[in-house]
Amino acid sequence: MSENICPQCESELSWKDQGYFCDYCQQKVSKTAFCPDCSEQLEKLQACGSASYFCNHCNELKSKSRVKSVFNIVTD
């Protein structure tokens, strides 16, 4: 089962126009990553096709397998 679930209707999200989209709700959805240790928002670092996360509060890299991801409906 996919880990990318709409926070409103719990349908699987699709990837559309460089972002997540719920086909059922017809809304854009954002994904935010939080530190598993201090719960601060993480900065996403991308290089060579790989994504890593950095916590400015802890001042260290965090494994993407440990990151807490939260999906929110985008309001324009």
From TrEMBL:
Keywords noted in UniProt: Ligase
Keyword Protein transport: no
UniProt-listed Gene3D superfamilies: YfgJ-like
Pfam families in the cross-refs: Zn_ribbon_6
GO molecular function: ligase activity
SUPFAM superfamilies with a match to the protein in the record: YfgJ-like (SSF161187)
Name assigned to this protein: DNA ligase
Taxonomic lineage of the native organism: Bacteria, Pseudomonadati, Pseudomonadota, Gammaproteobacteria, Vibrionales
